[in-house]
Structure formats: structure tokens, C-alpha cells
Amino acid sequence: MGGYENGDSPAAVAGEDGVVLGVDGGTTNTVCVCLPAAMPPPESPAAVPILARAVAGCSNRNSVGESTALETLEQVMTQALTMANTDRSAVRAVCLAVSGVNHPSDQQRMLEWIGSLFPGNAKFYVENDAVAALASGTMGKLHGCVLIAGTGSIAYGVTEDGKVARAAGAGPVLGDWGSGYGIAAQALTAVIKAHDGRGPQTSLTGDILEKLELSSPDEIIGWTYADPSWARIAALVPVVVSSAEDGDEVANKILHDSVQELADTVIAVVRRLRLCGEDEKDKFPLVLVGGVLEGNKKWDISGEVIKCISKVFPGTVPIWPEVCMFVTMPF
């Protein structure tokens, strides 16, 4: 849920009541905001008095390893506190919403680690980033479904009585199809297959070679495995979208298949929780987050996903958050 730069925050001053930290940890980047602990409930996202905002790299432990992920989290929190002219002793609460936190044991390890960094009277919350993404679209109310499609993908839902369900979010090896990584990996595979004569010719070949400044599809193999980080691969999504907009059949098939994968991910969660009611016609909020779902002009991925879901659940109410999770999570 990026798009931020360090220091990009409105003027505000930390008070004697201390501060709270909210961290949105993703596979592409990690964002931390520092907020006054005495802040009243905001009437709108624009009313939140952000003291400081800091940005760092990937903090998904499944992508970069636990040690590097924790280093990134500590770095971004320290940076936010420094920018707010305060320190760890002023922290009253920390909310970590991090991709890759998939099991209670993951939460417990993170809670023990974060507790070693800050005062003993501080409150700590650790969740998967999908929980925070849902809250970001509902101003803190955990009800409905969220679809994240960035470097990875996940659908996460919560009923009004607290039942939860998720689908996907298992990483590229186990199939985050429809994610940025999934789209780009299929495009790279299509280029190799076309080069081998095992697949149709595609303009993706020339477009990707130009983007990567390579001269032959043979070089793609070395480029891919030189640094197979998920975000690096996923960064090729705009090339795939551009090729599809120019009419390439292979690129269009990749995007259509990805749309269906994302829609099926949401449908699975909504059905499991019966968010749509017994007759599958009740209204429910669907929060959409992530770079794959954002603003393509001609090839509107999020629009196509919503069409697929709405055919099954006509009560789908799509929401695009105005603000990232850390403003709306209940500290």
C-alpha cells in the first residue's frame, strides 16, 4: 500500500501523552506512521494528525527471511520516531500489520520481539496486513471482505460476529495467482515458451527485453535467477498491461486468467462466511487494495474483477480506501 516518501507528512507535534506507531509491512515496501496517542477518533482520513511517515523495503519474512524482515521493521519504526523528534520511551502502542504473518505462532514470535523493543506498559498488536487493509476501507470496522493484489494476493473476510476466513496469500510457490508476481511470472514464461517454439509468439518478448535492457530471451533466465525476489519480478506488471492494451493475445489471456483467479479468491471467502446471505444477494463491503488493482486506463483489472464477483454476488459494494491501514486500526 505504498506511494509514500519519507517525510511526506502534515505538520504535527508529539505531546506528553506519547505516540503510537502503525506499520504496514508488505513484500514491496514497509510504511510506518507515528501518531499522537491522545488523538481523538478522526472524522475522515484527511483529519489524522500524522507526526511522521517513514518507508523501508520488504518485511515479509517468507520473502526475505525472518532476520532481514525484523531488521527492516525496526529500521522503519526507529526512523519514524526520529522524524517525529521523539524516541522509544514515548511509545504507548504499536500495531504491526505484516504480510507473511499467517499463523498464531507467527504472531507470538512477533509479539515477543516487539515487546523487547519498547516500554513494558505499551500495547502491541500483530496481524496479517489483510486485517489492516480491510479496516482501512471501513474506517476501522472489521466486517466484510478485502482483496489485496500487489506483489502477492490474498482475500480475507470477517463476519459481524467475528468469524474469519482467508484464501490465497500462500506465496508464489503455492499459488498467489492473480498477484503481481503471478502475472509477471506467467509473462516471463510465455516469452521463454515462444522463444523455444512451445508457445505462440507474443509482443511481450520485445516489450520485456526492452524493459530489462536485454538482447535475447536466453538472457531472461540469468536475469530471473540472479535475484528472484518477488517484488523485482512483480515490477514487470505494467509491461504486461501495456502489451495487453496494445492487443497482444498472450498478454490479454494472462490478465483475463488473473482476473478470474482474483475473483475466485474473493468468492471462496464470501461463500465460506456467507457474507452475502443465504440467497447470496445481501450487500457486503469489498475493499480493494494493491498496485495490481490500481488505475489502469484501458485494461481496468479491478473493474473486471468486480464484474466477475458481482455476477455471483450482486450485493458487492466495492471500496477503494482513501488511506492506508495505520490510520484506522484500533490502538
Automatic annotation (TrEMBL):
Its EC number is 2.7.1.59. Coiled coil: none annotated. Residues 21-310 form the ATPase BadF/BadG/BcrA/BcrD type domain. It comes from the Eukaryota. SUPFAM superfamilies: Actin-like ATPase domain. GO terms for molecular function: N-acetylglucosamine kinase activity. Signal peptide: none annotated. Pfam families: BcrAD_BadFG. It is an enzyme of class 2 (transferase). InterPro entries: ATPase_BadF, ATPase_NBD, Euk-type_GlcNAc_Kinase. Belongs to the eukaryotic-type N-acetylglucosamine kinase family. PANTHER family: N-ACETYL-D-GLUCOSAMINE KINASE. This is N-acetyl-D-glucosamine kinase.
